[in-house]
Amino acid sequence: MTGETITVLIADDHPVYRDGLASLLEPLPGIEVVARAADGIEAVEQARVTQPDVVIMDLQMPRLNGIEATRQVLAELPHTGVLVITMGEDESTVFTAVTAGARGYLLKGADAEEVIQAIRTVHNGGVVFGASLAQRIARVFATGPSARAPEAFPQLSDREREILDLVAAGLSNPDIAARLYLSPKTVRNNVSAILAKLQARDRSAAIIRAREAGLGRASS
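Above: the chain's sequence. Below: its structure in token form.
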């Protein structure tokens, strides 16, 4: 709308890029940089305080990666638009960012006008991807996660895959135990085995991989 100011939070662990982007955006009419964050946890905290219209989110950040930070921000602020700007452009990274709720995905090589237009598009409820990513996006969604899900993680047992599906849906260990009529200890042991088999460093990393494979949709 005319006269509307778009508030923006910039989350990136590289100060040169973070501050440079802020310097680019701050003089522009209609855009206000309300906060900057150097890692994922700070991004979530700053988003909670400032409630920005758009979060510009890097993916590779310390303490909490951009994917999990995106999920946490959108869980609390579902009307905030997340625009990912990162170095990575492989299909799995793009797909994971999209399934986390990002509405835009640009590479850090994008020019200033492309970034500005992406911020406005995301704020207006649109979805935007850089030109170099268009074919990758089309290919990922043409095959679709559901087609790959039954083949995912053949190293897991049926029970472990069932538990991973519920973990990816956001259920806690006690919730999973109640859902599957298992003891909490059994669930805990299975989760530990899943992390080991997937070589996932923690629960969040396992969730990312599971959602990328199409799991986590059967929470109800």
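Residues 184-198 form the longest helix (15 residues).
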